[in-house]
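Students often ask why we bother encoding 3D structure as a string. The short answer is that it lets us treat folding as translation between two languages. Here is a chain of 320 residues written in the first language.
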Amino acid sequence: MVVVVSTLPCITNPPCKRETKKRRRCDVPMEINKFGVLPMEIAPTGNPVEEISLEKCIQMKGAESTEDVADYGFDAGIEASDALRHNLSGLALQIKLKMCIIEAWASDWNSVVMERNLLTVAKELAALKALGLYKEKVCLRFLNIVKTRMMELLEQANRPHETISVDSTKLWQHAQVQMHENVTPQDVNSDFLRLPGYESSIRDASVVWKAMTMARDRGAQLWHDNKHEQALAFLVTADSYMKRFSIKYERIKVDEAMFAMLQEPKRRNISTRNVRFADTESIIGTADPTFDRSPICPSKPSKLESLLLRTSREFPSPVF
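And here it is in the second language, the structure alphabet:
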């Protein structure tokens, strides 16, 4: 089996002091971490849930025009900058933005990959909007933010030949049209996997997982053969694939959790079964009174009895 190792771009990180001496192998460059910050003015309202930990490289910062979010965080007893992370809907948007940035970096700033990720996110938002989880203005605002961040990343990476020509409004309309054409309301309300966009997301996650396992196994085999320099490239690639798979899997699971909140708990069909007895007794047979039914209590053999038992055994000999 041949495994192709793709070399991912890497920007030199500025020196920073760490409390531990553990080496970071394949982290996202710190220069693009600030693009993963989601403005809190688009945070939808919802019930606070338990905080789900994200990587420290993407932090949320407050804005001056987020008085409603700040008040919401104050009422919930949390910081205003942590209000999005305590909200499942806001957390889903944060993870989608982070996924788009990591995929753009992993593809070496390919505009085709960026536009495909934008279309996938638009389809997912259209499905979630049909369920009543998001408002249309929040979805449009989020798509504009993602597109703006992608264009800023292209400028920072000095890629003038790569441009994102798709319009956010037309992209949102196209996603809504596909949402109404391909999926019926019964499918939307019954099965999460039938929602548009999630089938391709699950397929992409499975492809990344298979690539990670192939690179990991190949690197482990080379390391076992004392080819450490060749194995290191495969292990670093497997680590990069694992980070991409983690963010894809987390994005799907958070959306599935929001979908599960709308579903009513299934009631178990408890069938009433009545036990009926015969009117007359029927005799099947008569027990033998002479049969000994006392329990058998074997005694432990002594060492001499065990030795005699082992020496008196006759084992079958093979036929030659």
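Translate back mentally: Residues 264 and 270 are 18 Å apart (CA to CA). Keep this in mind for the problem set.
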